[in-house]
What we know:
Number of helices: 9
Distance between the termini: 40 Å
Strand content: under 5%
Largest sheet: none
CATH architecture of the largest domain: Orthogonal Bundle
Number of strands: 0
Helix content: over 70%
CATH topology of the largest domain: Tetracycline Repressor, domain 2
Oligomer: single chain
Radius of gyration: 19 Å
Number of domains: 2
Amino acid sequence: xxxxxxxxxxxxxxxxxxxxxxxxxxxxxxxxxxxxxxxxxxxxxxxxxxxxxxxxxxxxxxxxxxxxxxxxxxxxxxxxxxxxxxxxxxxxxxxxxxxxxxxxxxxxxxxxxxxxxxxxxxxxxxxxxxxxxxxxxxxxxxxxxxxxxxxxxxxxxxxxxxxxxxxxxxxxxxxxxxxxxxxxxxxxxxxxxxxxxxxxxxxxxxxxxxxxx
Length: 213
């Protein structure tokens, strides 16, 4: 399912470039300062557009925020795509974990998750934004569940393993780990959270043996 976004009129190539610049500027500001801490004037300045230009593409701040949600969702999924599209083994999950942790180390655990940060701020403020964010998390969760389902279909997971429930647990570990890492400015909580859920998945494999170390 594609990301839900407000319908946009057709624009010229130049117009689309301007619109994209506005969304990217808003996404950057909202990631750093939060939605409430980002004003329309802030976006205008960063994107180098006038108020009339901004409102030509976005009728109000809510419309802009929904486009930011879509932008950040695509960015997260594209960045993780090579890992998410092949999460069908314990080794693949470990490689994905290592990528996530290394990214946090490089960022010094600043900002946390682009989607999670928006959800934390908007889930109780806007029904439309909450619906968009629910879909964002669903799109992130789907390849995780698909990979686990593939493992089960190949007989690598026990019959009592539930790919849907495990995928939810993996997502909870990611989001909880990122939040703790952001708060503590330390990637260790993310590594621990993902390692624990991966070890649980390992315990459900048909050829399970105790993990080394």
